[in-house]
Amino acid sequence: MIHTEMPxxxxxxxxxxxxxxxxxxxxxxxxxxxxxxxxxxFYEICKAGYFAEKxxxxxxxxxxxxxxxGYRIDILVENKVIIEIKSIESFTxxxxxxxxxxxxxxxxxxxxxxxxxxxxxxxxxxxxVL
Length: 130
Fold this sequence. Notes:
Blueprint: H1 10-28, H2 34-47, E1 52-57, E2 60-62, E3 65-67, E4 72-77, E5 81-86, H3 93-106, E6 110-115, E7 125-129
Parallel strand pairs: 5-6
Antiparallel strand pairs: 1-4, 2-3, 4-5, 6-7
Helix pairs in contact: 1-2
């Protein structure tokens, strides 16, 4: 598939992603594995016409050496928004730190931390900006 870079307002894009996540959550409800939500959200993002990559490798660059140490972005949308999906009781500081690390390493500015294990998804959304 050929993809041409289109200009997106990053806030508009993140709001559309959140609406798609709410659609997935309303359909599936809480209590499933993270992988279930990831697959369904990835499908919805692609169906909406956005370029997305799933389980994208994120190397660490140290002294000009590219090191693959196992970092993987759950979903990267339009090479601009990092999505980290969780299905947990509640967020902790380590979850925010994970997304902030991904933002730093990738050079992106906006990350969405989504916890699908909540009654209403709006209570499981955290926007992180660098």
